[in-house]
Amino acid sequence: MLLVFFSALLLAAYAIIRYIVCSSGVRYLVDTYGMDKKKLGKLKYKDITALRKNIIQLKKKNDVFSLEELVRKYRP
Fold first, then answer.
1. Could you tell me the residue ranges of all domains in the chain?
2. For 1, which DSSP code?
3. Could you report the per-residue pLDDT of 39-73, keeping only the tens digit for each?
4. pTM above 0.90?
5. Which of 4, 26, 31, 35 could link 74 by a cystine bridge, Cβ 3.0 to 4.6 Å?
6. What are 14-48's pLDDT values in tens digits?
7. CA nearest to 40, candidates 53, 51, 56
8. What are the distances in angstroms from CA 38 to CA 6, 31, 45, 61?
9. Do the Cβ atoms of 40 and 74 come closer than 8 Å?
10. DSSP string, 34-71
């Protein structure tokens, strides 16, 4: 019985931590690039991390036009 309680507690802690990490990624994108929070809210966790990775890659390449095209989809 105690094992079931602890496994449920660990699962809840994992879900809370994952939500916090995802919301901080959305907040970073909204604050830095002026993206719409509602449009980003429709994306899944994997999509948000992929978007951030693509933005980082384009910044390293100094490809301003591709970066603007990528970010423009999520602006209000």
1. 2-72
2. -
3. 998 889 899 999 999 999 999 999 999 999 999 99
4. no
5. 35
6. 999 999 988 998 999 999 999 999 999 888 989 99
7. 51
8. 35, 14, 14, 29
9. yes
10. ---HHHHHTS-HHHHHHHHHHHHHHHHHT-HHHHHHHH
